[in-house]
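Now for one record.
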Amino acid sequence: MGNRWRMKVMVITSIATGGGVTTAFISSLKMLRGEGHKTLAVVPVGFKYRNEVDRLADQVVDIVGLQRGGHLALPFQALALARVASRHRVDRILVINGRFVSPLKRLQGRPVICNFQGGKAGRAAGADRVMTNNVENQQLLLEAGVAPVKVGIVDNVLPWEELPPWFERSQRSQPVIGTLRLLEAAKGVDTFIDALALLSAQNPNFRALIGSDGSLRRQLEQRVRRHRLQRQVEFLGWLESAADFYRSIDFYVLPSRTEEWGLGVVEAQAHSLPVIATDCDGPRRLVASGVNGILVPRENPAALADALLQLIQTPVDARRIARSGYLSAQRYLMKNIQKDFVDFVTTEPPSCAATPRRGGSGIERTVRSVAGPKGAGEVVLLPNSQQAADPDERTERGHRQAAPRTRYPRRRR
């Protein structure tokens, strides 16, 4: 462990739904707990995986409005977070992505660690240490002014204890191609559909399944109709079980325009699937093309169609790639990443070696007098135990504790 004593780490996410950032958040709780540290999870009200967080974290705080974007809400959100950190006397603050890093660092003296999953690198510039998951993100952080000594690459994880058993697929007369992507522009599902149209012109005997949902679903369905692929392509919407999806297909495609890591790649490899992915940030780190997968250029339907045709026509190569991918997926199991991750979070950052931690009373006085836009400063504490952090903390589940309204001075006319 990076430190010999047991730390209390506050882990923050502002994303209320699923996706890679949420997986990184939940994995962080598991790994910190696995190394013997206490965790305080901070999530937006309505967090999709709230029940799982209840099970994993020692304490949980819900903040209304934490998921709201915009620079006007940010100061109030940061004040609410600083109040929670002070009240619970945490030793470290881990922010998943960088939105709250700089204002949190200005408000209190505890080390702030950022797990940067992509986006605006400048948001992470105020952190004491920044971990990221690929070389491109590391370069973005350095260009944004983060000191090289503060930046490190730590892979994301498969949030499982072990891989599923190897599954030998029999060759089907009508192979099934699948992708499990949010239906948003960055995920490249339009490129996937265009590639299927080109593949159909050469080999129409296939089916394709598109899992998940998103704002572009109607446009993508129209694209399928325009290519006359309605009989071959099916939109599944949100899935109850990703594992069932992976077992139902023969080839997995990740067609993203940008992908910070590529959890879908590793999940598909772990389910014994041959993978084709676009040559972008994360997949480039995960896939050795021709060995444990195939990389194709971004936004290139012809190259993707050719790669699919190659795997369909050469099942021996498909099995070899799938087997190699299955073996490479093992390195991303939680047990193989956990120690590096926790050491990065708990080791004393260089900028904090001589920084005294501020007492709770000053920041508490500052924050108690501030309430943000509707709900932003309203905190709901749902501890897992009956003993609250402070004597005056309400422990009844569902009780809402709101900060008083801010009184602004009247402007003189």
